[in-house]
Amino acid sequence: MHASRTIRNVANAVNLSTPLGLTLALAGHGRIRRLRGLWIAERVRLPLLNASAMTVGSVVLVPGRTLAEAEVGIPGLLAHEDEHAWQWAACLGLPFLPLYFLAVGWSQLRCGDRASANAFERQAGLALGGYRENPKRPLGSSPQLWRRRAERAACRCVRILRKRFTSRGL
Q1: Could you give the maximum distance between any two Cα atoms of the chain, in Å?
Q2: Could you tell me which of 4, 41, 102, 124 has the fewest CB atoms within 10 Å of its CB?
Q3: 33-83 per-position pLDDT tens digit
Q4: Does residue 44 contact residue 24 with C-beta atoms inside 8 Å?
Q5: pLDDT at residue 87 greater than cutoff 70
């Protein structure tokens, strides 16, 4: 492993993001292994995990399947998630979460998806993460336009949550 990855992993351990990731992996009954300086938690079962993979600190959580199975459809997935591990270190750990969710909100507002205008996803490589880049929409100055967009985003979130919980019989 490269010295820079070791420094990143130590930073993510000290800033408590990797312990949080490992806790989530264990709570989701994931199978944990090491690969290229990252902890890989495969077949994780967490109700709100709605992505091909998610990185917390230096831990990559892969829901419901193995990393190899996920990479069949998204060959650059591990490289994308590796960049997110660097972002956790750069943000000093847990501050990454509110910053990331602000970036998701901005992307929803500008492009109608969670990644196209999200600075974190763009820096990690949209294509590597399996995302398509959607065009930016004009912001508009109308308060009614902003309200409608916020309502649509909230409805989308509710649909996703409802689908996740009903599919698990909760």
Answers
A1: 52
A2: 4
A3: 999 999 999 999 988 778 899 999 999 999 999 999 999 999 999 999 999
A4: yes
A5: yes
